[in-house]
Amino acid sequence: MRISGMMSIRAAASAAAALVLLTACGHGGGDGGGDKGADQGKQALRSGAPTPDPTRIPDVGDKLQSRIPDQSRQVVAVYGKGVNSGDATVVLYTKQGKAWERTRSWTAHNGKRGWTTSHHEGDKRSPVGVYTLSDAGGVLPDPGARLPYTSSGSFAAPHYWPKSHWTDFNYVIAIDYNRVKGTSPLDQTRPEGQSEGGSIWLHMDHGSGTSACVSLPKSGMEYLLKNLDPKLRPVVVMGDKAHLAA
Question: Which residues lie within the region annotated Disordered (predicted)?
């Protein structure tokens, strides 16, 4: 498995989005890398620790694992720190053959009050679950997205919000929770009713928890927009560690 590393950077004080990347360790190729992996596997067996199953998304239990469509070959996993925490890590996994490869990872945020299995409008919690990713957009021009992309000033956050939030929606990817697939993320249609909430997106980070969305650094959003491929049926698996592992 290859893990692409990302360098941590700071945005200038005037920037609206927090551009913080999670640094990951690189995995060297060649015989040395293979031997190291074999040694680690032997150590895991000696210690009694379970050997990770490469055909499964790490730290995701049977309940949510079973909801990942067989056709999906890209998974954005959102690992919330805790049920009442707004801090998270986002990892992109790409399926090669039958094995899932960890492709990239970023520090991120979710709902400021944490997570819920029964999301409602205004609860400030992100919904736990598995959802498809089918549409994108933002204030900024299309950066080369593979998903259908709508560029519009209508995405702009209202300026009565704190200035740190003004660029949140420069890039967004709609999470298909209570929305109509195949439409712009701006579409407000909520098939399950207004009370169930909606407009839950992956969007640019401002350095703290959100209303219910998941936020990433600008570089992370650009990477996902350029690499999430509708032909690979991308989905997001999201929740706090306990709910993910169930």
Answer: 29-58
